[in-house]
Structures are given as structure tokens and as C-alpha cells.
Amino acid sequence: MKKLLACCRSLVVLAAVAILLNLSNVSCFPLQVAVIGVIAPLDAGLAEFGQGIRNAVQLAVDEANASCCMLGWRFEMVALDDSSDPATGAAAAQALAADPRTVGVVGTYNSGVAAEVAPILAAAGIPMISPGNTDPALTLGDDWENPVRPHANYFRVVASDADQGPFLAQYAYDVMQVRNAAVVTETKPVSKGLADAFTEAFEGLGGTILITEDLEPGTTDYQPALERVAAANPELLFFGGEYEVGAAVRLQAEAEGITAPMMGGDGLKAPAYIEAVGVACEGDIASTVGAPAASLPSAQAFLDAYEAAGFEAPPSDFGPYAYDAANVLIAAARDNLRFGRPVSTADRQAISDAVQATDTNGITGPISFDAFGDTTNRVLTAYQVTGGAWVAQGQ
What we know:
Blueprint: H1 2-27, E1 32-40, H2 47-66, E2 73-81, H3 86-98, E3 102-107, H4 111-123, E4 128-130, H5 137-140, E5 154-156, H6 161-175, E6 180-186, H7 189-205, E7 208-215, H8 223-232, E8 237-240, H9 243-255, E9 262-264, H10 271-277, E10 285-289, H11 300-309, H12 319-336, H13 345-356, E11 359-362, E12 365-368, E13 380-386, E14 389-394
Parallel strand pairs: 1-2, 1-3, 3-4, 4-5, 6-7, 6-8, 8-9, 9-10
Antiparallel strand pairs: 10-13, 11-12, 13-14
């Protein structure tokens, strides 16, 4: 009898192993789902950036699942629109925080949206990695000189305006040989912060800011401000803001006879800006995060896979960073989730801790974070509109 029972047990074990192997061959035996959320402008707002972010995360998730990197687990991307609107972003964060399967979020693009999203995800213990936020306050608090990290779960893989403002000032002063400028800026914190960082650095180099004009939210008639700018006759018009408003300002500046080139940050550097303005923006300057992906050998496989996937929207400058952010979260989840156990609060904390400890190489270069959650790889590139396209000028 004992021999019979032993034989039966052996047969059961062998049958189970055979079933597992067969399922593994077919579908990597997925039993549980770990959600990588995306919060980005997909339907409205700066959708040109947001759609590339979403697609890049989808590619990272698809590759992770294809490689069967976690036995018994499958990654799923859940992308929610924020339309570049803080309230819409907050609603998206609430939805992801309420999903017990969520292990991390890639997003947001807009810093103003991140200010509402980060505390919601922090309350749920969910790590958030931004591929596009540049407001220094998100990592340093409102007093940059005496930094205090607002949220231990918040990280970014791009340089902030604490670097971008001085970078643009240096480019204007040293490369363009500009000695005076006018500043026109939207008043939302990230735009005003970039303009102020540029002003401080430019004046520190010996330049002169002739006039500063603040554009209140909802402003569509920029003529009064630009008349005052025209009267100052600047060598450079610096714009703090994003391409939608920037294009309108640039067109009205031309109507006012302002011939100086316009300069802005990563929010301005989009093909949509050139499409809206046309030949009037020839010679304009903008910076953006990182080096051009096409110039990085490490990014070629990503660019090829992105094209092969057939996404309608291009990756933009932020897609490669979203891809790296997603892979950081995937690696952290892989090392901390356990087979047969649902995602717990402790798991989310362990994943966040693993993100903080990241020290790896991504397609955009080295990836690690300082004590405030800022990237240690703070590369920026200046571009100029040349022949109707953004052309890289230097880092």
C-alpha cells in the first residue's frame, strides 16, 4: 500500500511539473498582475510629449513580459490622461493609488501636475519616476538654498530647471554673445522658476535683463506686454513656458516688429512649435533633457524597437527617459515581489527603496538618484530652429 501511495504521489508531481513546463512554454505561466501606471497628457495639453511617454512605457512592459522576467507575474501598463491639468492628474493618481496591483508610476510630464499627483501616490506608498518634470521644488522644496525633500517616493530621470536655467544663460552669453535680453514668462511655478533661474545666471555672467513681463493664466492677448518688450529692443527674447503659449507669443512678437530670436526650455522644444509659428521661428533656441537619442549608441535598440512597434506618435525627447524609468520600476518590482503573494504596502516600500538605490545604465546613460530623488546624470542639449527643424547645437 505504501509503495502504491508513493507511486501515486510521484505521478502527481510529474504531472504538475509537466503542466507547469507546458504553460511556461506558452505564456510564461502568468498568475498575478503588477501594474506600471502612466500619468501623462494623452488627449489634450502637451500630448505630443505625453503620447511618446506612454508608448515608451508600453514597449518596456511588453519586453519585460516577453522575457518572462518574473515567474508567476505579468506586468501591465495602465495609462491615464492628465491633459496637462493638475486636477485631471490628481484624479488619475487616485485611480492608480486605489488599484492594489499598482507597483509604480511613470509620469508626469508637467511639473504643475506632478505637484498634485506626488502627494497622492506618496500616501499610498507608490514610487513615481518622472521623465519630464523640471521644477526644482518637486525634489528640493520651495527653498532651493535650504532643500528639504517633499516626498521620499518621488524621483526624476531628467535635469531640473536649477540646471536648465543656467545652461541657457551660459549658451546665450558665451555662444550667442548676447549681452541684454527681455524675459516673458507664464506665471505657473515651473515656467516662472525657469525664467528666474535664467535671469539670475545671465545677470551673474554680466548680462542685463531689460524688462520682465509676466503672463497671467488665461492670457491670449500678448500685445501690451510685447509692445513694451519691443520698446526695450532686446538682443534676445527669453520665454518661460511651453510650446502652445510660446507659439502664440512668438507670432505676436513678430507682429510687433521684434526681430530678436526667442529662447526657451524643454517645454518649447517641440515640432508643434515650428509647425505653429512657421518661418518666423527660424533661429530660435531651446534646450531639452539629455543628448539626442539618435546620437547615443545605447539608444539605438530602443529606437529600432519603437519604430517596429508601429506607434503613431514619435517618442519625443522624453520617450527614452520614460523607457528607462519604466525599466527601473520593473527591475525593482522583480526583485521585491513574491510568487503567490499580492502586492502589499511593504512591497511598495521595498520597491521605492530599490529605486532609490538604483545604480545602473539605461539607454539614456547612467541612472542613479541623489538624496533628494534627482538624477545624477544632468545632461542638457541646446537646439536651434534651422531649415524648419530643431537641430542640436551642443551640450
